[in-house]
Amino acid sequence: MRKGLIILFFILTFAAGVIFYDFSYETEIPPEVIEEVQPEVNLIEKLEVEVKPPISLNTSKPRQADLVVIKVESVIQPRALFGGKAISFFAVSPDNWLGFLGIDAKASPGSSTLLVDLGEGEGFSEEVVVVKQSWPVTELALNEELEAQGYTPQNIATGIQENENVVVREAVLSYRSEPYFKEKFMDPVPGRVIVGTFGNIRESGGAGIQHLGTDLDAKKGDPVFSINDGRVVLVKEDFLNYGKTVVIDHGLGIFSLYLHLSEIKVTSRQNLKKGEVIGLVGNTGYSLEPHLHFSVKVQGASVDPLGFIDAVNASL
Ligand SMILES: [Zn+2]
Asked: How far apart are CA 65 and CA 103, in angstroms?
């Protein structure tokens, strides 16, 4: 027992010695060494600030049909490339720029590099990973009235592919690289009551089309508003499937499309202000009941139109 206490005493003394030794060692660092260490820490902090890229994305993992908002801090107008596509930027303040990258609903999933050139040899790259969406497959529906007019799933799918989509693609091919708008976007009809979701694949008898817009509930004759300032680039009275259609260029490659109107209130090449009435809700073309089919293209990419409005408005 006594022997045990002696051993414990030695252990405690040894431990205290170590602690004391460490403590005295710490206090023995000459003040000038600490002075030398301090500026180095500051230098590391400074370097970290300097190498932080002046770029931020609202998401680096967009899903198909999402919008990537690119913010760049720079005094020089940036340029960017993604998948061979050039992205236009506009200034929101003297040294803050915004660019919009639309991920097409049919974009291949996977990683691609976004290259941002800030001029004078300065550039940055960001990996953007496109995430696959699983689109629901629904029936391409028809009613007796449409069937009596000669609509079949086959001629709807072929007509859209060979006529409507060709004309619309042509209309959205060239655009102003500057935005027409300065303010946030608004909805084309109030309420956001969705009666046809974006992205559905509608099939019947081997024919299929992907629904690249959102169907919004509204009554026949309700006004349809331009979602922002822009210029009318297409007015079509006689599309067999899209019905009476208006396409508006908002600049930067952003276009809004309004389908199945009962009446069109604008003319081609007309300049528009946000909220101007461009037409009335209808049921023209391949449409089962009055509603507004609303689409947005960003540099040819079909994006979820309401998601587009929310993403842009969050950045403005
Ligand atoms: Zn639709």
From this structure: 5
pTM of the model: 0.83
Task: Find the Cα–Cα–Cα–Cα dihedral 241, 301, 94, 43, rounded to 10°.
Answer: 160
- Cα 140 to middle of ligand 1, angstroms: 11
Answer yes or no: do 86 and 190 share one domain. Answer: no
> Distance from the CA of 260 to the center of ligand 1, in angstroms?
9
CA of 212 to the centre of ligand 1 (A): 7
102 & 189 share domain: no
**How large is the average pLDDT for residues 132-142?**
93
The conformation of residue 35, written as its DSSP 8-state character, comes to H
Q: What is the pLDDT of residues 203-261, one digit of tens each?
A: 988 888 999 999 999 999 999 999 999 999 999 999 999 999 999 999 999 999 999 99
Tens-place pLDDT, residues 47-74: 554 556 789 999 999 999 999 999 999 9
Nearest Cα neighbor of 202 from 213, 216, 217, 218 is 213
Q: What is the residue range of 36's domain?
A: 2-51
- Same domain for 234 and 259, yes or no, is yes
Q: How far is the CA of 105 from the centre of ligand 1 (A)?
A: 15
| Rounded Cα distance, 120 and 311, in Å | 31
Q: Are residues 65 and 200 in the same domain?
A: no
Whether 233 and 267 share a structural domain: yes
**pLDDT, mean over the chain:** 87
> What is the rounded CA–CA span in Å between residue 3 and residue 6?
5
Do 146 and 112 share a structural domain?
Answer: no
Distance 174 CA to ligand 1 centre (A): 24
**Boundary residue ending a domain (80, 104, 130):** 130
